[in-house]
Specification:
Elements (H helix, E strand, L loop, with lengths): L11 E5 L3 H12 L3 E5 L3 H9 L3 E2 L3 H6 L3 E4 L4 H8 L5 H4 L5 E4 L5 H13 L3 E8 L2 H6 L2 E6 L2 H6 L1 H7 E8 L3 H29 L4 H8 L7 H11 L9 H18 L4 H17 L7 H27 L1
Helix pairs in contact: 10-13, 10-14, 10-15, 11-12, 13-14
Length: about 325
């Protein structure tokens, strides 16, 4: 298989899953000249793409039959199994030799399961996990971690270049999704560290705006978090990466650690704060934990002020 197989002139693309990330990737593929069949259970997601040149597939089975390269970016493991492993799913309806680039954040075990079923049915499946925010997707600056056949990975580079600035072959099936969970463990831990440190600084008398501005100009803040500080200073927690998705990833990370008997106390602590914010702020950006740590500190301060007279009386 050579790179021509993945160029716009030779590829009939299918794309499943048109949420915040998927629809931005499809827009870039359409702009690059790729003929793209799209499928989503939500009509509102496909109609704008149809206006830009995408063709709507009425079912997953028909999309599979009409594509030689299929990409997907869906919610979770259950959605991936539904798309690929069901009788009317991709793997049983695709033509032999079809290439699947599965980009959802799921467990490595599920990635390996789908790849093994693909091998049985003569469909090539790579897990190609995405790292990056929705603005990065719009700019074509995502980072990809792939697991599976290295020759197919190399051949697919013309396609990857349309929406990613870097792409890495990590290892066999499941290695791409494993790498994504490693990266997101750091992402989640660092955001919690920022939230705690910011709350500490404010509690110690630092001006919040100055604190966040100066932090953003230090070497300790990763590029992924730089923009979050400026938006937090404005109270803007509109979602680029929703907290509910970080929560899902934390659960995948913890499940992987459990299966490998790995000890990850920092992830466990960050997950607890994230999980406490899920009900009220699940659809806000995951950086909203900054506000939650600030509120926790304020609540603690008020409680201490209320209890102080009673404690003083008891001490007499």
């Amino acid at each position: 298989m050579n790179t021509n197989y993945f160029t716009a002139q030779h590829t009939a693309l299918g794309f499943i899953g048109l949420g915040n990330m998927g629809n931005r990737i499809v827009r870039r593929l359409l702009a690059a000249g790729y003929k793209t069949l799209v499928y989503s259970r939500t009509p509102g997601e496909v109609n704008p793409l149809q206006k830009q040149g995408a063709t709507i597939a009425p079912s997953i089975a028909e999309l599979a039959q009409g594509s030689n390269v299929i990409l997907s970016c869906v919610t979770d493991d259950a959605a991936v199994r539904n798309v690929y492993a069901e009788p009317q799913g991709v793997l049983r309806r695709a033509r032999p030799g079809t290439v699947v680039l599965e980009m959802s954040t799921i467990s490595p075990a599920t990635s390996r399961e789908i790849a093994a079923l693909g091998t049985q049915l003569r469909v090539h499946v790579l897990d190609v996990a995405i790292s990056g925010s929705t603005p990065a997707a719009e700019r074509g600056e995502l980072i990809l971690f792939a697991g599976g056949n290295p020759n197919i990975f190399e051949a697919a580079t013309p396609l990857f270049r349309v929406f990613a600035k870097k792409f890495f072959h990590i290892g066999p099936s499941g290695a791409g999704t494993t790498m994504k969970l490693v990266v997101n463990a750091i992402l989640g831990i660092e955001m919690q560290a920022i939230a705690e440190a910011a709350a500490l600084g404010e509690r110690s008398g630092l001006n919040r705006d100055v604190l966040l501005d100066v932090l953003s100009q230090t070497a300790v803040i990763a590029p992924a978090h730089l923009g979050k500080l400026g938006r937090a200073a404005l109270g803007d927690y509109s979602p680029q990466f929703p907290l509910r998705l970080m929560n899902k990833d934390f659960r995948l990370i913890l499940d992987l650690a459990h299966s490998e008997e790995a000890h990850i106390p920092a992830v466990e602590a960050a997950f607890q704060v994230n999980n406490s914010a899920l009900r009220s702020d699940g659809d806000k950006d995951f950086s909203v934990v900054i506000r939650h740590m600030e509120l926790r500190d304020e609540e603690s301060r008020v409680a201490r002020a209320v209890l102080a007279p009673s404690i003083q009386r008891l001490a007499r």
